[in-house]
Amino acid sequence: MISVENLSKRYGRHQAVDDVSFRCEPGTVTGFLGPNGAGKSTTLRMLCGLTPPTAGRASVGGRAYRDLPNPGREVGVLLDASAQHAGRTGREALAVAAQTMGLDRREVGAKLDLVGLDAAAARRRVRAYSLGMRQRLGLALALLGDPRVLILDEPANGLDPEGIFWMRGLLRDFADRGGTVLLSSHLLREVEAVADRLVVIGGGRIVAQGDKAELLAGG
Ligand code: ADP
Ligand code: ADP
């Protein structure tokens, strides 16, 4: 379960995130929607302990991310797929992460299969990957430790329509098995087919949140 309580972040005079609160429950997909610059990444970075909040709290399963005994096994995080592991091959990136987490190497092949990166792709360096391939690799890294929670920042960026459709199925399946998913997007169409709930942010503030069907019916 994800809990964000009165979270705020100020950069100088700029209030990037302003008193944001929401929760994500097991078995649900929450779409975190808002235009570029709305404060989505900053919120997710605070949730994952990468940016200190100016005020408020964020926790996963009742603990701050940094206090989780084995974060990679509990929370899968994909924050900026374009920046990861440029000098490694896809397989190496996963192997290093598996070793760090103390996982069996066989998990690497299993997760490559799961995200649809074939043997040829796995042998290539990540810097030669398209953004869509990086998103697939990022998802494989996030899923590597079989976490119960997924936090994904704009995972559909760079995916083609088939890839978006594929990811939708994967995230739905993850939630239907009791997982908790929080994914951000600047496009409603990328999240509306998969999300159960929507949290809408604009200018750092929550604009609306609730059950997707109710929110969309209410206009
Ligand atoms: P989103 O993910 O919704 O596109 P961000 O969280 O990246 O939005 O950014 C929210 C606002 O905070 C933007 O105006 C952005 O320029 C600003 N911002 C984000 N990170 C920093 C930073 N490290 N220093 C200064 N301003 C930042
Ligand atoms: P995203 O595309 O995920 O919203 P951005 O491109 O806004 O991310 O930001 C990428 C990085 O640059 C992040 O580390 C963010 O904190 C930082 N950043 C964003 N906006 C600013 C800003 N106005 N000043 C300084 N750093 C920023």
Features:
219 residues; alpha/beta; 6-stranded mixed sheet; 3-stranded antiparallel sheet; binds adenosine-5'-diphosphate
Descriptive notes:
- By secondary structure, the chain is of the alpha/beta class.
- It is built from 9 helices and 9 strands.
- It has helices spanning 40-47, 71-74, 90-100, 106-115, 119-123, 131-143, 161-176, 188-191, 212-217, and strands spanning 2-11, 14-24, 29-33, 55-60, 75-78, 149-152, 180-185, 197-202, 205-211.
- Strand 1 (2-11) and strand 2 (14-24) form a beta hairpin.
- The longest helix is centred in the last third of the chain and has 16 residues, at 161-176.
- It is globular.
- The two termini are 28 Å apart.
- It binds adenosine-5'-diphosphate (ADP) (2 copies).
- One of its GO terms (molecular function) is ATP hydrolysis activity.
- Keywords: ATP-binding, Nucleotide-binding, Transport.
Helix content: 25-40%
Shape annotation: globular
Low-confidence runs = none
The chain-level structural class is: alpha/beta
Note the main sheet.
6 strands, mixed
Q: Averaging pLDDT over every residue, what do you get? A: 95
Which ions and ligands are bound to the chains?
A: adenosine-5'-diphosphate
First and last CA, distance: 28 Å
GO molecular function: ATP binding; ATP hydrolysis activity
Domain ABC transporter: 2-219
Organism: Micromonospora costi
Family: Belongs to the ABC transporter superfamily.
SSE blueprint:
Blueprint: E1 2-11, E2 14-24, E3 29-33, H1 40-47, E4 55-60, H2 71-74, E5 75-78, H3 90-100, H4 106-115, H5 119-123, H6 131-143, E6 149-152, H7 161-176, E7 180-185, H8 188-191, E8 197-202, E9 205-211, H9 212-217
Parallel strand pairs: 3-7, 3-8, 5-6, 6-7
Antiparallel strand pairs: 1-2, 1-4, 8-9
One adenosine-5'-diphosphate is lined by residues 41, 80, 153.
